[in-house]
TrEMBL record, chains A, B:
One term under GO cellular component: cytoplasm
Cross-referenced InterPro entries: aa-tRNA-synt_IIb, aa-tRNA-synth_II, aa-tRNA-synth_II/BPL/LPL, Anticodon-bd, Anticodon-bd_dom_sf, Pro-tRNA-ligase_IIa_arc-type, Pro-tRNA_ligase_II_C, Pro-tRNA_synth_II
Keywords noted in UniProt: Aminoacyl-tRNA synthetase, ATP-binding, Cytoplasm, Ligase, Nucleotide-binding, Protein biosynthesis
Main subcellular location of this protein, as a coarse class: cytoplasm
Protein name (record): Proline--tRNA ligase
Quaternary data: Homodimer.
The keyword Cytoplasm is annotated on this UniProt entry: yes
Catalytic EC class: ligase
Organism: Daejeonella lutea
Subcellular localization: Cytoplasm
Catalyzed reactions: tRNA(Pro) + L-proline + ATP = L-prolyl-tRNA(Pro) + AMP + diphosphate
Pfam families the record matches: HGTP_anticodon, ProRS-C_1, tRNA-synt_2b
Record EC number: 6.1.1.15
GO molecular function, one term: proline-tRNA ligase activity
Length: 490, 490
């Protein structure tokens, strides 16, 4: 199975594309830019959703659902918002097809919409138009709502999971009585995302703020978490926006405060998407296939029988079922692969490709000796252990692997975060080693843009709790009070 | 709160509309025909999803995700399918907006799609186009996939939950090697739906098959479950379709059998939607508000404090927290309403309106006596019981209520299912009492259509395991071998 997987060294991008397809995660559909998420890939998304949804609810949020379509006029109400999204919008103009009389199905021009509808690229506008009806007084606040939904952004160059015309995500939209509360919410949700990335995805992230240039269209402040992929490119893994009163003003959403004053409502929005599946793949996987952190793996343990006779097969199957039952009682997902048309070596390669964390192999000699061969996917270490205590061993191993995968990614990031003090040094690092580059910048959009044009590197973020340090901009020599984090990015 | 809710007797339709809005279930959005599902309504959908998803997985299905958009040409490949859906399709024709130079945002005519995209009204076509790449041999079968998604059908007259332009649903799409297997799957999933309707929604259903007229566009056979609402109108609560080889032929999906023969694949599809929330509301609720079966209620128990002093309030709150903790340990969802700006009577009415199954009220005297007042929503019975054993009492009560709500609905259906032996009798029943009417019919589409035109009643289904009975069609007098079930329907 893993034969034919291009190595990361040879062509990282090709490796990724092949891996996503061969591991049955997703594939391109017949619709330009839209993907099909296959059952194995979707199972990872379901695990991500379950963990995130619990975190959202534990922080007081409820789910709701808002329309897929947004009237063009709503969409245009917040100036910078429409500016940011207008060039990538799918537009619905008609609501009926008809037979043209010659047997062809055509769009019925008599069924043209009076006002075009935009397929939501994000839902601030339709949601704030709705909130207008929900909010009169401070007693109606805060509103803490999240939506799990599909969104469409008409991307010209697409890649499975990383950039697709349609993707799945969640978008939180909250409304508050004060600026302070809204900022706290923005920061709280950033921390939820960071917690999820690090403790579920095993991907260490830098928490930071975007520069004005890179802000969400309509936000006063965009917070983000940034992760580093194995090719040294950064990936934005989640964003949390402080929207100020921009959308409340655009949709005239006011409330009466405790003191009886009328004011516009304060807003946040925050989201993560199926893009995280791309990050998960690129952060940990190797030339044999996926490496999945146990907490998000659809199958945590696979059992492969190795037998020379039907009788041996029956005995192994009996043992495998016994083990499966014990594992399930511990909430460990397990699959017994009893297909008789495939050889064990083929199955081993398949589960390596699919990143199943723990593989058990049981042969005739194991039956005699009361042993099991156990292999861990991340390090590929194998050992033969006693059947007794197997379940406890696996429980410990899954916890250890989750931590070990995180540690490896953290070490990689540390090894690939460098300081540059001159623009030459900066460019040399990017070209030779990539990774995060920490450098002084004069704080202007002009310089930021020049760096991007000349090096393809962008400011990923101004890290939170950044150390203040006097310096000069590596490009203009103007004074700077802190380093910011650059990288080439997905 | 419940003041102003029109009674069912006065205007059932108005009662429903008001109830959905006042109970914070859903509201109309600014987009024609599209609803906003509010947190309380969405929480019921989440409970429905969780139960159904587990049933789908227990019967071997996995979830996946397919594109929102369907190329017009795919959509047209199955003749009766496009015929069935063409008149209600949202069509995407452009992928970009632009500023017209005068500050107006307009559709960019330079960004016209070569081929229009249909927003999925159902996904058979895009899925079978995908399955073509997944299926070569019998070893690739069966494929048992489900999708949770939004779909759009451009309805002209819409009602919250019951008929909306966009709705949420699940659609199962399975592929099989034999006709027999596909029929078994169709029937299995109908049984899953019936099980869910009866044991979770507490709504008794008739399992049956649709007549040719009422079949899904592209199906050889449509199975359905039919429920009866309190106004005597029927509601189709779920459908399961045996699609034969229609979609496999339209998309050229063939497989090599064990015997080495090439054949088209056999298909099923099945779905239920947010319409079920409408059915849930209409089946059980009363003039005071929602009546929710405990298994699907977002809040199963609410605790309301009744106090005359801060000191009393503190003591009641302590007890309420203790009880809440005990209930949560039993997986019973509970809310302690400690809002100090509202009177108990107001809260009582609010939770009646929202259909919270069990209400506990704790007052000063209860503290002294070690008692609690407990009220059940369905019958509105109240009693004062001892604090000791409260949790066990509530556990039993929730089970009893679930059953009791079902029994009431079943009795209603039995009381409102009648036989008609002449067309006059048939029309009289419909006009005077409505409900299900069991009658003989000659089996032709012409007669079916005439009955519909003249009485607005449709054949809801030919019940499964129907009793054979010689008779004559009530309209044409032609021979008939069984009665079928008629009703006016949502």
């Amino acid at each position: 199975m893993s034969k034919g997987l291009t190595s990361r060294e040879d062509d990282y991008s090709q490796w990724y594309n092949e891996l996503v397809t061969k591991a049955d995660m997703a594939e391109h559909s017949a619709v330009r830019g839209c993907m099909v998420i296959k059952p194995y890939g979707y199972a990872i998304w379901e695990n991500m959703q379950a963990a995130l949804d619990k975190m959202f609810k534990d922080t007081g949020h409820s789910n709701a659902y808002f329309p897929l379509f947004i009237p063009k006029s709503f969409f245009s109400k917040e100036a910078s918002h429409v500016e940011g999204f207008a060039t990538e919008c799918a537009v619905v103009t008609h609501y009926r097809l008809k037979n043209d009389g010659n047997g062809n199905i055509i769009v019925d021009e008599d069924a043209k919409l009076e006002e075009e509808l935009i397929v939501r690229p994000t839902s601030e506008t339709i949601i704030w138009n709705t909130y207008k009806g929900w909010i009169q007084s401070y007693r109606d606040l805060p509103i803490l709502v999240n939506q799990w939904a599909n969104v469409v952004r008409w991307e010209m160059r697409t890649r499975l999971f990383l950039r697709t015309a349609e993707f799945l995500w969640q978008e939180g939209h909250t409304a508050h009585a004060t600026s302070q509360e809204a900022i706290e919410e923005t920061e709280r949700m950033l921390e939820v995302y960071a917690d999820f990335a690090e403790n579920w995805m095993a991907v260490p992230v830098i928490r930071g703020k975007k520069t004005a240039n890179e802000r969400f269209a309509g936000a006063l402040d965009t917070y983000c978490i940034e992760a580093l992929m194995q090719d040294g490119k950064a990936l934005q893994a989640g964003t949390s926006h402080f929207l100020g009163q921009n959308f409340a003003k655009a949709f005239d959403v006011k409330f009466t405060s405790k003191e009886g004053k009328l004011d516009h409502v304060w807003a946040t929005s925050w989201g993560v998407s199926t893009r995280l599946i791309g990050a998960l793949i690129m952060a940990h996987s190797d030339d044999s296939g996926l490496v999945l952190p146990p907490k998000l793996a659809p199958i945590q343990v696979v059992i492969v029988p190795i037998y020379r006779s039907d009788e041996e097969f029956d005995k192994i199957s009996e043992l495998a079922k016994e083990i499966s039952k014990e594992l399930k009682l511990k909430n460990i997902s397990v699959k017994y692969d009893n297909r008789d048309t495939l050889r064990p070596g083929f199955k081993f390669a398949e589960y390596e490709l699919k990143g199943v964390p723990v593989r058990l192999a049981i042969g005739g000699r194991d039956l005699e000796n009361g042993t099991i061969e156990i292999a861990r996917r991340d390090t590929k270490e194998k050992q033969t252990i006693s059947r007794d205590g197997l379940v406890g061993h696996i429980e410990d191993l899954l916890i250890e692997m989750q931590q070990s995968i995180f540690n490896k990614a953290l070490k990689f990031r540390e090894d690939n975060t460098r300081e540059a003090n001159t623009y030459e040094e900066f460019k040399a690092i990017l070209d030779e080693k990539a990774g995060f580059v920490s450098a002084h910048w004069d704080g202007t959009s002009e310089t930021e843009k020049r760096i991007k044009d000349e090096t393809k590197a962008t400011i990923r973020c101004i890290p939170l709790n950044n150390k203040l340090e006097e310096g000069v901009c590596m490009v203009t020599g103007k004074p700077s009070s802190q380093r910011v984090l650059f990288a080439r990015a997905y």
